[in-house]
Amino acid sequence: MVLGILTSIAACPAIIGTTEAIRQGQRQSAKERHRGVKSGLVVQCSTRSAAGREINGCEVVLSDNKLYLSVPTDEFPDGQPDDHPFAGYFLPFPERSWGRLGEGFVSTISDDPPQLNWIYVDQDTFEVKYGLRADAEPHIVGPWDVTPVDKRVTLEGWEGFIAVKYGPGEWALYFDKEDDDLKGILDPEMRRKEVELVRKERKQRRPG
User: Fold this and answer.
1) Most buried pick, 52, 58, 99, 133, via CB within 10 A?
2) pLDDT at residue 12 in the model
3) According to the UniProt entry, where is the signal peptide (predicted)?
4) How many Cβ atoms from other residues are within 10 Å of residue 163's Cβ?
5) Rounded distance, CA 69 to CA 164, Å?
6) Which residues lie across from 158 on neighbouring strands?
7) pLDDT (tens digit, 9 = 90+) per residue, 138-175?
8) CA 54, 58, 63: angle at the middle one, nearest 5?
């Protein structure tokens, strides 16, 4: 009887270790699954200012090789009709490896025919853009990742995204790489707002 108890006690660490390993594997599998799911992007920001109230919750869209926010206007309450909603996922960028730091990021640019482009940041202007591999390769192509809990998008390990206003209802997405409010890149008079990028699962359509 005593021997049986001692054997059980000795086995406990192994059992606990095995259980924890299984849980870690399950968490890792869940993480990998969500990374491959095609998702939209919405911006979140403080709503204490008029700019924040204008863009908070807006969807990210693709147009003319750049990423914009779909801001409702009187003329286009549902956003510009030619804009393509972001629908993307993480994917290893060819001949680049960042290990656990992240991967490349892609999005569809059209539904018919379906076509993917790489998401990247222009190394000179810090605009967030999309394009073919040849377009993206000279620029900042990763590592893209997400925060551990809320799954907000990161680039190079942090959230440095800024929305910049070009005109009425027109906001473009930038990455503040140097964390200096894009000093020397933008006209100081241009309105800008720090934003978070949140992945949003796309609506499931009826098959067929």
Assistant:
1) 58
2) 44
3) 1-21
4) 26
5) 10
6) 155
7) 999 999 999 998 889 999 999 999 999 999 989 999 99
8) 110
And the tokens for 127? 């605009």
Per-residue HEC secondary structure of the chain comes to CHHHHHHHHHHHHHHHHHHHHHHHHHHHHHHHHHHCCCEEEEEECCCCCHHHHHHCCCEEEEECCEEEEECCCCCCCCCCCCCEECCEEEECCCCCCCHHHCEEEEEEEEECCEEEEEEEECCCCCEEEEECHHHHCCCECCCEEECCCCCEEEECCECCEEEEEEECCEEEEEECCCCCCCCCCCCCCCCEEECEEEEEECCCCCCC
Q: What is the pLDDT of residues 50-91, one digit of tens each?
A: 999 999 999 999 999 999 999 987 666 666 768 999 999 999
pTM confidence score: 0.82
Q: Buried b vs exposed e over 81-118: b needs ≥16 C-beta within 10 Å?
A: eebebbbbbbbebeeeebeeebbbbbbbbeeeeeebbb
Q: Tokens 């680039």 sit at which residue?
A: 155
